[in-house]
Amino acid sequence: xxxxxxxxxxxxxxxxxxxxxxxxxxxxxxxxxxxxxxxxxxxxxxxxxxxxxxxxxxxxxxxxxxxxxxxxxxxxxxxxxxxxxxxxxxxxxxxxxxxxxxxxxxxxxxxxxxxxxxxxxxxxxxxxxxxxxxxxxxxxxxxxxxxxxxxxxxxxxxxxxxxxxxxxxxxxxxxxxxxxxxxxxxxxxxxxxxxxxxxxxxxxxxxxxxxxxxxxxxxxxxxxxxxxxxxxxxxxxxxxxxxxxxxxxxxxxxxxxxxxxxxxxxxxxxxxxxxxxxxxxxxxxxxxxxxxxxxxxxxxxxxxxxxxxxxxxxxxxxxxxxxxxxxxxxxxxxxxxxxxxxxxxxxxxxxxxxxxxxxxxxxxxxxxxxxxxxxxxxxxxxxxxxxxxxxxxxxxxxxxxxxxxxxx
Length: 408
Ligand code: ADP
Ligand code: NI
Description:
Blueprint: H1 2-14, H2 19-31, H3 34-37, E1 41-43, H4 55-63, E2 67-73, E3 79-84, E4 90-93, E5 99-101, E6 112-115, E7 119-121, E8 126-127, H5 133-138, E9 144-148, E10 154-155, E11 170-172, E12 177-179, H6 183-195, H7 204-221, H8 225-234, H9 240-250, H10 252-260, H11 265-275, H12 280-284, H13 292-303, H14 307-320, H15 338-343, H16 349-355, H17 367-391, H18 394-407
Parallel strand pairs: 1-2, 1-6, 6-9, 7-10, 9-11
Antiparallel strand pairs: 2-3, 4-5, 7-8, 11-12
Helix pairs in contact: 2-4, 6-8, 7-8, 7-13, 8-11, 8-13, 13-17, 14-16, 14-17, 17-18
This protein binds adenosine-5'-diphosphate and nickel (II) ion.
């Protein structure tokens, strides 16, 4: 069965028309890949026949001062990797007719390996040439494995594997990138390490809500789901209140988490652009997200601060800060600018409603957000009227009346 599949893909690969263009696009992708950029020790294969051409990649890696390794078959079952300093060192043709390095310095440490195959599936399963060399070599080694192939060699159907077959961490073709594990899940783990213990209203429960709401808005607004999910997950990991001003400015945690998850540079840049523009105190300074994905997350984050969840979060926050839910003697501060807002903690949860939460409905940037904010806002208003009624404080009811009139 596997043998038949091998034959099929061998034939197919021979007839792929634009191999040169595809190979050069794949080479560019490798060079821009986070794992390539962060690693000094990289193993390639020396392409022959109709494989994705790796010569340009190898040449560039040498110019980038990477330690470059190539495989050499050392006996019927095993191969080893040897360092080369220049492509001129490829002079030996092995028994299988493949060119190998003459070099004698064996690789001690390989961080990333670029791997050929006859066919890959989107989960990273690989159909090799049948010798099992790569599977045996990679057994028990911690190497980031990138399979490369032409678009035509990517199979829609899952490739059958056995226990010895090694899965790629990622498969790269000209048109696509396919990751074994779910990047979103990996990023969520990184976020949880920072926020799981938070009890100031930024815990994972808040993050999960913002993620869910953002993805719902995404459907309506036709935005990029992956970018939106990443912004949602990372929107509080550099909050100035939790991690300080320096982190907030440099987005230190977001950068680290995305790099660890090997997210492409292009995606990282798009996410960081939006992260730098999300948050209430930035909005007070006129800094607002520019992309649809950033707007969606900003709306979702603000929606989670209003409505029933908003009421509970405001209560929790005040308790943690040692402030009461309500103090009828102290009325809310009015027209706070960004600096004052960042420095001052509201005297009570109720004041926080007036100082921030009741303003959020008017700050929505997407249609989906506006729609969601509307009923959440009404819940808060109704809650406050009932609350002031029960507290028997007519002057506060009046204050609310005036406040709402002014904000229409
Ligand atoms: P986020 O950035 O996630 O919107 P914040 O950092 O502003 O949220 O605050 C976290 C939660 O605590 C929110 O629900 C917010 O309304 C509430 N909160 C913030 N400041 C106060 C305060 N001074 N009093 C009561 N609740 C507050
Ligand atoms: Ni938030």
